[in-house]
């Protein structure tokens, strides 16, 4: 079942409106960046899960039982890694929705300064850093799986060549020179290609999270500036109210 996009969730829409009404445009862009990033990750992870399911079907057609077992194990492990990434993104999405709802509620109860603090408490750079680290580990796992498949393919290729030459020797024929392994041929090559593609996608996701985390971290000073600006204004309002009270 497809989940609703984060950008159309009521909590997010309300937060955008409140931030814009209060002139907190940088904070709004920061939230929008994370929302857009999460939506993009959900789409990519969904595509990868579909490709893994297709690969399960192809691996099930392998006749060699030992090879079937090894490939199935790699596909299951890859599927588990992608599912872990999906869970990580889903948890981040849920926390962002909760934080957005709390920020709007806080604003209605306590005003603009509390809204600024609530947005800072969402810790968007930290959330992006966690995603970055998770995607980094998954990218490395995919690269390792591709490497194991390379080894398996080389071993099978060499074994096949030895068996052919053994047959030719028995038949009194000359042995053939070792043929080059074709990179894009067979189920193992397709599986290797899938792992390589997934590894590159996770590496791209890692870099994307890193860039957004760096940008959001740099903009944290804007939040502190907002808070510092609010304090003198609030103090001035309190002094004016006190003078009016004394004049009565």
Mean pLDDT across the residues is: 79
Q: What would you call the structural class? A: mainly alpha
Question: What characterizes the major β-sheet?
Answer: none
Report the order of strands and helices.
HHHHHHH
Q: Low-confidence parts lasting 5 or more residues at pLDDT below 50? A: 159-163, 180-184, 221-227, 229-236
The percent range for helix content is: over 70%
Can you walk me through this structure?
- The protein is an all-alpha fold.
- It has 7 helices and no strands.
- Helix 2 packs antiparallel against helix 6 and helix 3 runs antiparallel to helix 4 (112-121).
- The longest helix is centred in the middle third of the chain and has 47 residues, at 124-170.
- The relative contact order is 0.12.
- The model is unreliable at 159-163, 180-184, 221-227 and 229-236 (pLDDT under 50).
Compact description:
This protein is mostly helical. Helices cover 85% and strands 0% of the residues.
What's the layout of helices and strands?
Layout: H1 10-21, H2 25-59, H3 65-110, H4 112-121, H5 124-170, H6 187-218, H7 220-247
Helix pairs in contact: 1-2, 1-3, 2-3, 2-6, 3-4, 3-5, 4-7, 5-6
Which features does this protein show?
mainly alpha, 7 helices, 85% helix, elongated
